[in-house]
Input
Amino acid sequence: MSTEQAQPQRALAERMERSQVITLSEFQPADPSSWERTSCRACLKTDLVEVLNLGEQPPSNAFVATEDLGKQESRFPLSLRLCESCGMVQLGHVVPPELLFRSYLFFTSSSKWMADHFGKLMTENAAEFVPPGGLIVEIGSNDGTALSAIQRSDVRLLGIDPARNISVMAASRGIPTIAEFFSEPIAAEVAKVAGQAHLIVACNVLGHINNLDDVCEGVRKLLHPQGAFVIEVPYLAPFVERNEYDTIYHEHLSYFAVRPLAALMNRHGLHVERVQLFPVHGGTIRVTVKHGVWRSDDAQAWLKREEAAGLSKQSTYARMAELTIRNKTELPTKLAELKRAGKKVLGYGAPAKGTVRLNYCGIGTDLLAEVTDSTPAKQGLHIPGTHQHIRAPSALNDINPDYVLLLAWNHAPEILARESAFIARGGKFLTPWLEELK
Ligand SMILES: [Zn+2]
Output
């Protein structure tokens, strides 16, 4: 090994040991223009057809400070396309990730329910796949919550996450974190320095990455021959069945089913070994990927179910488009009716899906003035594009609304349990598809 190669690796190893945030390259200012992708992210063919168009939207996590309310916000096209070759559902336009992820305001630790879910994933898979001395790498490690659930002292942990603000938080809780996008060169470097990993985990992150080939090549190199690559992604089937169109946002480039995922892995010498379904985010699949190219019985069964559900057919998405367009009329109409009836309405949660729903439906502060969110970093800011003021959850008691619009509908069970006092005094929860929850 030359001295030039040895130096950055030694530096990386030292910083990993000291649990510090590591920056491997200088941050380049974002290019504010989006670009159009004409080839499928899973199979690289160009058989993409547009199935849903949500117009031009601001980046869903680009929250606006009060002093910036008069300034112009960037907007980018948001349209969903289906690959007729492999069934991959994906965005047609890519916003530069530096614009979307360098200062990320979602912290895994802010939701106990999600922290528990990911912690369990880590401990179970570490027990199944990682021998003493083994390395566990998490791609998109956020604030280190999931990795810190592992209580074993005989394994080594490494997080990789491009958001500098949360990488600092992870490092402060003792999880060494590389503040970078996971890529084939980073994976190769980690493999050289720390050895191959017995477990690589990527939860809710694969959908955010444009170049999936780069990630899969990185995994192929970094993954130990007996190791497992465990992915969690929101599943396409419930997204379509329940018309979760507000989970379409610029960060979320791919909407996975097993079929395109298996095709993608096969192109990189990997295969889908096992698929499990969880009721997280309205329906999430946990996919265990290993070395070697073949179809497991589990994968075969899922492919059959997906074919029966028509997940690769354009007609399936035509129904989704129809429901979406209907919501664009019905939701603002309902809010206007409540306003005329003198009812107070407060939004609950300022997740990315809230930004998308409010912007697509054109719901400004006249129909919905304020929302609450439990993430302190969002409080005091305003929703991108539609400018609802974001307040702490205690605003629910100050405002005492008649209705709460549940923008963070994926956390409904947790929220309803937390706000039982509001419900007890007659408050009503309204889903964005106008269902009243009790
Ligand atoms: Zn494809």
Q: What stands out?
A: The two ends are 65 Å apart (CA to CA).
